[in-house]
Structures are given as structure tokens and as C-alpha cells.
Amino acid sequence: MDENCYEDQIWIWDTCFMVLFAKYAPRSFPGVESLDNLYKPVHEKAVTPLKVHLVDNPPLFAWVEKEYFDFTGDKNRLDDLLNKKQYLQKHFNWFAQAKSGERFACSPQNIHLNSIGADGFTWTGGASGMDNTPRGRDAGGYRNVLWVDAISQQALSARCIADMEQALGNADEAKKWNIEYEALKNKINHLYWDKKEGFYYDVTISDKQPCRVKTIASYWPLLAQVASREQAQSMVRHLMNPEEFGGSYPTPSLARSDKDYHHQTGDYWRGGIWLPTTYMTIKAIEKYGYHEEADAIAEKVISQQLAAYRNIEPHTIWECYSPSGNAPSTEHGRRVRPEFCGWSALGPISLFIENVLGFKEVSAARKEVRWRLKKNKGRHGIKNLRFGGIATDIVFDGKGTVSVRSNASYSLIINDSNYSVKKGDTEIQL
After folding, report:
1. Would you identify the CATH topology of the domain 9-361?
2. Which pLDDT tens digit goes with each residue over 314-332?
3. Cα 228–Cα 274–Cα 43 angle in degrees, nearest 5
4. What's the confidence (pLDDT) of residue 2?
């Protein structure tokens, strides 16, 4: 999968996010296989025609592989990743000890990430993926703060590795990674939580004080499930506040209350709406049961994408969007990249399926589909949904009947009620 930026370079976090929508059409789009283009040059020193643009991009491999495994139930890939190649463990361990200036033959850039012991990491806008973010502004720059997303992504990775090890029956390994996760969880809540504002912030290296530049990166701790219920509630209040991340155009990359927020276009990561961080934030608050809020955000963002597609020339999917209108964002004054399904296809594919249609969770491992059915939407559903070896149609008639066709049996959970689907046709009266 190509993010459509440079022909000879690939990005870790672009590719990871593309897997999350490519999984819905694995016969057509080689999503998860594209990760091998990153694992092999980074961890096996394989020589390829593609360069890895930033080896110290966000470490999302374990999260994405876990999501892919849940959807497909592919234990062969899991065994190869964790038992044979150990790519996920290697990447976690490398990231944990990375030092600024390190070089990889597969990348044209030096590493910017720098591990600061157990407390976290310094990073840069480019390496973190948030290119022109003003984070670290009041502390004298990027190198003077510990980045909350970096340590939270490590916690997310540890949690996902533990879950996958458990799925393979490796109880001892799962226990080891759960211990790693708990240590990171405790560190994040001790060091990065600001009780005064009820928000996760980057912190200064010198005195471990909050660096109060409020960005969408602060929702990574929720995706890693390190927040308590009370902390999550506070974070959702900030998310839904129209003066910060809420309003008609939700999830700007920088809070509207920040002095560097660019109202008109978002100026890339100074307020621009990005589908990867929007998707992350939606999935993060869902972990704590905020489904109505998640669905409302998804519908607004997809509606913005659709309006921009219809009304702006060229009629296309954009790299990122304005926080104040149905238009693309800008990068240093010029319009952002068009023809950028890249990760922006997370909107019309993943968020549409998962939050508009409401198919919240699909698990091949458990042979289960969890549907948050909204009866007021009338007739809707999905056809030819494939997960694991199952192919199914699930359609609500808009009145009271769900018609299901499947090539195998599975459990369909509709608004917390469990129904047994048989091979062939099943009619469910709600």
C-alpha cells in the first residue's frame, strides 16, 4: 500500500493506519503484507528499493497486528511475528533504548528519538508524525520535553503483545509483557497526568512539569487504556468542548484555545484535522464506553470529507482537513496533498463501517460480530463482510427484522443481545 507521498519512500505510521482499512478487502489490498516492507529492512537489514522515511515514527506495529489478528484470526502470522521473527518485541526494545543520531541503512534520516531512561522520550515533530506541532514551545523546544504519545504508544504495544502472546498460549510471555505494560501505565499516570486541568500533557525534562500545549496526541493514553474512568471522563470533556477539540469540525490536531491554533485552515498540525489521529481518538474513547460521542465525531468528520469531495476541485480525498470548513488544510501556505486515500480512507471505510453503520467489533478468533444498531437510520447494513473464513451479509430492514446470510455460524451481538447465526439464512426479529 502506497500513501501517495514520495515514490521511493515509505512511512511506518502511514502504512500502519492503512492496514486498518485494507483489512476489509484483504483480497484486493495488500495491507498487512505492506508491514513486511518495514520489518525486514529495519530488523533484518534487508536491502529494498524503498527507503523508510523515519524509522522512529510512532511504534504502532503491535496495535495494528493485534487489530488485524482480531479481525482475521490468523494465528500463522502471529506465530511468525512473535515466535519466529520476533519483530514486535525487537521494535519495542529498540524504541525503548533509541538514541538520537543513530543511523539505519534503510533510512535517509538520522534517528531523532531519544530515550530518557524510564521517564520517556524526547522526539521531534517530524519523527512523531506531527510535523509543525508547537509542542515543547514553552519549554524551549522539542528536545526539552518528554512526549506523552511516545511512552503511551509503547504502553499500547506492550499491552497488545501480551494479548497476542496469550492468544498463542504463551502464558509466561504474556505475563512478562503485562508487567512491562503496568510499569509504563504507572509511569504515565504519575508523570504525565495534570491534575490541575485533568489532561495528559508532555512534561519538561528539567522539572517534570506539564508543558501545556494541548494537542490530540494526548488521547494515546486512552487508547492504551492507562487512564482511569475518572481521567477518561475528564479527557472526553475536553474532547467535546467546542473551545478545544469539539464543535462542528471535531478533533483538530491542536486545541482551538491554543495561541498557535490556525483557525482558517489548521496549517497542517496547528489545527488541521487528520484521519489517523481522529480514528485513534474515536477508538480511544470507545474503550471507556463513549460510543455516542465517538459516533457523533465520526459522522461529522466523514460528512466533512464528503462535502470537500463534492465541492472542492479536484474532487478527491485530502491528506488532512480544515478545522473550520469543508476544505483541505494547508501546509506552510499551500494546499495539502490531494489523491491521498493514504490514511484518510479511514473515514469513508473504517469509520463508516464501524461508527456510522455501527459494526463496532468483528472478531474471527471469537466468531463474533458486535453491532451497535441504530434503528432510526432505516434500512442499512453490510454485505460481503469477510472476517477469518466467514463471509456474511447483515441487513436491518428499517422496521424490526435483521436478515443474515452466512457461509458459517457465528454470534451476532445486536445492542448487547446475543443471537446465533447459522450457515445459510437467518432471520432475527428484534
Report:
1. Glycosyltransferase (1.50.10)
2. 999 999 999 999 999 999 9
3. 80
4. 86
